[in-house]
Amino acid sequence: MKIILSFLAFLCCLPFSHAATVDTIGVPSLAMNKEIKTVVIQPDDVGNRSLPTLYLLHGYSGNYADWVKKAPAIKELADRYKILIVCPDGGYGSWYWDIPEDGDFQYETFVSTELVAYIEANYPVANTKEQRGITGLSMGGHGALYLAIKHPDVFGAAGSTAGGVDIRPFPDNWDMAKRLGKFSQNPERWNAHTVMELTHLIEPGSLALFIDCGQQDFFYQVNCALHEKLDYLRIPHRFLVMPGGHNWDYWSQSIHYQMAFFSEFFTKRDN
């Protein structure tokens, strides 16, 4: 259903100072035989508690540093909600897929397996799906939903902000044909790699979902279509529409709603 988190304005006015630690690390990937740069934002003053983890993915042509540089409020949000935020590099146009014939593009394996294992071995975080979430913008929004649906044992909650949740209306864009071949010649492969055709894999109630998109975004129609399909399949989810386009002005606002959603999920699962 469409929601507006009316308490956001109140939360944003609360006084607090952020002391989150921001590190850029190299995470080894055996699947790709290289290190992947990753930003880790660790909240301050957490005591002996095990933190929940939010994996936050960038969009096409972006990189690991996008979120912390272009939406710096995530440092304050990490502190407010006591969530460890992990921003991996997703390559240029990877769409967070594994491409069997290209060893440089094994980002599904990296994010869902190698990165999760590394973070949980090196940071004070919980190691259950109930304390793991994943979200992202644009290509990363599609990637977050794609990975969460395909790995239900890893992620308990998933989000997408302005995600390209159905790739098929855009067959000539954003390097997707380089990864999958031409849509006209490989329709089954494209179907297998788009969130819109994976919804049947979601067991209702097994994955908490929050999807948002701006009304002026070129991905607005595919997000509305995904919302309608999830409704038809009776898969619970939250769907938020706000004014805005496909840009950082919108994403810098939407991350507040995304973080509030994940905080609510983690808090409920921690009780």
Provide a descriptive summary of the structure in words.
This protein has 271 residues and is an alpha/beta fold. It has 9 helices and 8 strands. An 8-stranded mixed β-sheet has the order 1-2-4-3-5-6-7-8, sandwiched between helices. Strand 5, helix 5 and strand 6 form a beta-alpha-beta unit. Helix 3 packs parallel to helix 9. It starts with 7 loop residues before the first helix and ends with a helix.
Key descriptive features of the protein:
271 residues; alpha/beta; eight-stranded mixed sheet; 9 helices
Poorly predicted regions are 1-16
Largest sheet: 8 strands, mixed
Helical residues, percent: 25-40%
Number of strands: 8
Report the portion of residues in β strands: 15-25%
Cα end-to-end separation: 25 Å
What class, by secondary structure content? Answer: alpha/beta
Strand order across the largest sheet: 1-2-4-3-5-6-7-8
Report Rg: 17 Å
Shape, please?
A: globular
Mean pLDDT: 92
* H/E topology pattern: HEEEHHEHEHEHHEHEH
Tally the helices.
Answer: 9
Q: How would you sum up this structure in a few lines?
A:
The chain contains 9 helices and 8 strands.
How do the helices and strands line up, and which of them pair or pack?
Elements: H1 8-13, E1 21-29, E2 34-42, E3 53-57, H2 66-70, H3 73-81, E4 84-88, H4 107-122, E5 132-136, H5 139-150, E6 157-161, H6 176-180, H7 187-192, E7 208-214, H8 220-232, E8 238-242, H9 248-270
Parallel strand pairs: 3-4, 3-5, 5-6, 6-7, 7-8
Antiparallel strand pairs: 1-2, 2-4
Helix pairs in contact: 3-9
